[in-house]
Design a protein that fits this description.
It is a single chain. This protein has 326 residues and is mainly α. The protein has one domain. It is 72% helix and 0% strand. It has twelve helices and no strands. Helix 2 packs antiparallel against helix 9, helix 3 packs antiparallel against helix 7 and helix 4 packs antiparallel against helix 6. The longest helix has 29 residues.
Length: 326
């Protein structure tokens, strides 16, 4: 699928940036004057390592094809949902509803994304999935903490599956400005997908650095002692800077690229803060331990889960209502 010079150029640019970031992390780890907190350096290097893994996996699946990319995010969704559900207690009456959530609604959502059935995957979970969960738990006859239990399952399905599924759905965006009957440019959409993931990750890395180095004013002290307004500005500024640097890779006007980067930065920060609130409520630091030293999968994709559906919708309606860039 990656057969366009700009697509290869974007992948190469990401590799170069990752290489530079890895080199910086290596040098910081070797410095012995104690100018920076070793914890900050360690967290920076772990973020870069996670970034390598995600981008390498995406590049590999994109080379294989659209179906492989959809399957990759389907597996990520499945594991993230598992981490989410594991954090909260369930009752025997919830088990059949959970079975359907994991083995019916989650794969069905990604199958519909792969088949490019937007009219179905855009409503299946928030309409049919939510109604099924409530009815199935009620049918089991256990009313204790009914609202809490059903809301937990619905929230996990929405964030971990529905929202994240809009990331590979970017590959099926229709562009009516194209002359082809299919109105889909897979190379163009692959660049939009890579752009989203890279901008989100850069925003998160800059946020982390800003919080550790200059963060003083907490956004929500009761929820997180790490999330600061300085981190928020860092996330938005990092996303904007990255978006401007990579603006040549996406089929958007410069003003729209700026707006999209700002939105991604804001939504990514909102996603991290929201998921921190859930962890605080559950009394845990991380969602899981799949990746040693990195927490769980959901800890690494929380920002992407919130940014992806908004990014998708903005791109979709931009294509429909704007002329192609010069």
């Amino acid at each position: 699928m990656l057969d366009d010079p700009r697509t290869y150029g974007l992948v190469l640019a990401v590799v170069v940036v990752l290489g530079i970031a890895t080199g910086v992390g290596w040098l910081l780890r070797r410095q012995s004057n104690g100018a920076l907190d070793p914890v900050i350096i360690d967290q920076f290097n772990r973020r870069i390592a996670a970034w390598w893994i995600l981008c390498a996996a995406m590049a590999t699946t994109l080379l294989i094809g659209q179906t492989a990319t959809v399957a990759l995010f389907g597996l990520i969704s499945f594991w993230a949902l598992r981490e989410f559900i594991t954090l909260t207690p369930t009752r025997i009456a919830d088990h059949k509803a959970l079975f359907a959530v994991f083995f019916v609604f989650t794969p069905a959502q990604y199958i519909l994304v792969g088949l490019e059935r937007e009219g179905l995957y855009s409503i299946m979970i928030p309409v049919y999935g939510f109604l099924y969960i409530a009815a199935r738990v009620a049918l089991a006859g256990d009313y204790k903490r009914f609202l809490e239990r059903t809301a937990k399952i619905q929230a996990g399905l929405m964030i971990c599956v529905y929202c994240l599924s809009y990331t590979p759905a970017i590959l099926s965006l229709k562009d009516p400005r194209l002359e082809s009957a299919a109105a889909t440019d897979l190379n163009q959409n692959a660049r939009l997908l890579f752009f989203l993931v890279v901008v989100v990750q850069v925003g998160e890395v800059v946020r982390l650095a800003a919080e550790k180095l200059i963060g003083k004013h907490l956004v929500a002290p009761a929820i997180s002692q790490n999330r600061t307004w300085e981190g928020f500005l860092g996330a938005v500024g990092g996303a904007l800077t990255c978006g401007l640097v990579l603006s040549w890779a996406v089929p958007l006007e410069l003003l729209m690229t700026i707006l999209l980067s700002l939105v991604v930065g804001v939504m990514g920060f909102a996603g991290g803060l929201t998921m921190s609130a859930i962890k605080r409520d559950r009394g845990v630091d991380d969602y899981g331990t799949l990746v040693t030293g990195h927490g769980g999968v959901l800890d690494r994709i929380d920002a992407l889960c919130f940014a992806a559906p908004v990014y998708y919708q903005i791109c979709k309606y931009y294509f429909w209502f704007h002329e192609p860039p010069l």
